[in-house]
Amino acid sequence: MSLNREKYQALVTLLEQLRSDATTTQIVAPELRQGVTSLQQFFGQQIVPLADENWRVQSYQTEMSKQLRLLEIDVMFLQGARQASTAQTRLQTISDRLTTLIQYCNAILQPEAEGEK
């Protein structure tokens, strides 16, 4: 399981970096789009193939996959934003979605409750 933990930890690092970039710098949409594409590639190549028979982890992976697709759509909407206020709202939505993804990873990384098997 330690290799799996390392991969999820690497995903958290990527998510946190992208969230930081989206909230603290004047990131342009194409850069953000590239970051999301990199995230999706990492997820598809490193996380999806992880064989885990735990239903809890599988359900988190499914939700993460959905959130990544929605994140891609959010970035497209950001690219289409014409007003600064709209762009700011889109960036907040992107940041919130990245936070959700980080929380999912952290939930997977948490040791299971004793009664749960």
How much strand content do the residues show? under 5%
Describe the main β-sheet briefly. Answer: none
- Outline type: elongated
Structural class: mainly alpha
Report mean pLDDT, rounded to a whole number. Answer: 88
The count of DSSP E runs of length 2 or more, i.e. the number of strands, is 0
SSE pattern = HHHH
Helix content: over 70%
Oligomer: single chain
The tally of helices reads 4
Based on CA atoms alone, the radius of gyration comes out at 15 Å
Regions with little confidence, pLDDT below 50 for 5+ residues:
none
Distance between the termini: 15 Å
Could you explain the architecture of this structure?
- This protein is an all-alpha fold and 117 residues long.
- Helix content is 80%, strand content 0%.
- The protein is built from four helices and no strands.
- Helix 1 packs antiparallel against helix 2 (29-47) and helix 3 (55-80) runs antiparallel to helix 4 (84-109).
- The two termini are 15 Å apart.
Compact summary:
The protein has helices at 2-24, 29-47, 55-80, 84-109. It is an all-alpha fold and 117 residues long.
Tell me the layout of helices and strands.
Layout: H1 2-24, H2 29-47, H3 55-80, H4 84-109
Helix pairs in contact: 1-2, 1-4, 2-3, 3-4
Question: Which properties best describe this structure?
Answer:
4 helices; 0% strand; mainly alpha; elongated; 117 residues
